[in-house]
Every structure is written in C-alpha cells, then in structure tokens.
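Mods, move this if it's the wrong board.
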Amino acid sequence: ENLQQVASLAHEAGLPFFLDACRFAENAYLARLHDTRLGRQNLYEVARAYFDLADGCLVSAKKNGLANIGGFFATRDADLAERVRELMVVTEGFSTYGGLAGRDMEAIATGLDEALDETYMAYRTGVVAWLAESLEVLGVPVVKPAGGHAVFVDAGAWLSHIPKHHFPAQALACALYLEGGVRTVEIGSLMFEEDARHELVRLAIPHRTYTRSHLEHVVDTFARIGEHREHQHGYRIVRAPRLLRHFTASLEPITPAPCVGSPAEQALPGTDD
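Not the wrong board. Structure tokens:
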C-alpha cells in the first residue's frame, strides 16, 4: 500500500519512480508476513507486484543478489537505457559485460532466483529475530521489529552517559570490535552530523556467512561490554574529509580526567573531558 501511494504521488507529479531494490526478497517476505491482503501469493508474485509499480530500480547485488560483487540498473525508459549504455562505454565497458566478469554476472542471476526461496528467507529473517530477542534479554535496547537483514541497537539509550557530540554509537561500535572482534557500523551523529535523529549501531548479517555460534559470540560480546558499559568513553574527531566523513574520518578516545594530584595526572597531562 505504501509503495502504491508513493508511486501515485511520483507519477502525478510527472516524476519517474525508482526503487532501491537491494533487499527486494526480504521485503517481499516481510510484506507477505504482515499484510494479510497478499494472501498465499508466493515471493515471486509479491516481488513482481511492487516491481510493477516502478519505472526502474537500482540494485546492489551483494545483498539479496547473494553475490560477492556487482549490481545493476534497470529502467523501462528505452531512451534512458540507451544513454546509460553510452556512458558505460566510458566508465565501465560495453553493456554486454557490464564491468563484471562473466562468473560474477552468473552468480547474480542465480542469487536473484535463490533469494526468493521460501525456506531460505524464513531462516534468514528468523536468524535476525533470534539475535534481536537475545540482545533484548540482556537489556540491550533494539529497534523493533528486527526486519530482514540487521539488528539496530539504540546505542544512545544503552550508553546514555556519552553525549551525542562524543558519538555514543561509534563508541559502541569500537567497543564491540575491541572486546570481541565484532565489526559493525555506526548510524548516528558521525554519519549524519547534526541531522542525526538517533544513535544506532547496525549489526548487519551477511547472507550464508555466519553460523549460530558466530551470533552467540556477538551476544556474549554484548554481555561482557554490558558488565562495564558505564565506563565506556566517547570519541572525538581528529581528521575528517569534507564529504561522507564516517567512511574515512580518524577519531581518538576521550579518556576521563584523572584525579588531581594522582600519578595518572602526571602521566597523562594532556587528557581532558
């Protein structure tokens, strides 16, 4: 229903309606799970229904394409398609090989089909739900419902003693890596600067990569951090690019100021905050 409304608004305004469809299979599964009007339609039929609303799409095939690299652009506009093909000769190569090896293109074609397997998608969304529920048991605040590809932790709530300008979500992401080697990503003030509405850490789960024991390790890592999370510190930016600073910025930890007259004060004369 939401897609129908957005498509209608776009077309009424004379604008093309394109989907970012990198998670088309997960969205199809979750839509059918929560929208009773879809009845017993299979995932192919649900996905087809919302692709039919669009004038085109952009897809990173590393998500629901189940591929290790690549993606594609699709459009119903023949003139636009031709302009893109012409540009590809300059930037990517001929459209017949799309800047990718034949093996990679075959992997994408196979992955797009296998991602709509009912059993696989039930397993995938179930794994994400299990991780969210396990973190909730520890008292870790998560965004609900968990969705189909990741669990989002509310780092601003869990590390409430770290102010927004000291990047609590980045602090949690660093703590997870230092404590357990768990790689995550900050989605908060470091990424969106003053426009950030939340301080989130995304635990994205790659397709066909991790076992249950891997995710249990993630939960155990949160448990260990939780034992001393009040001592977690924030971070400050040392260097940042003009655009997209969260990709390449350098940060340093903000250590607590030592007590006056303590040996630590003499050893760390430059600490502040």
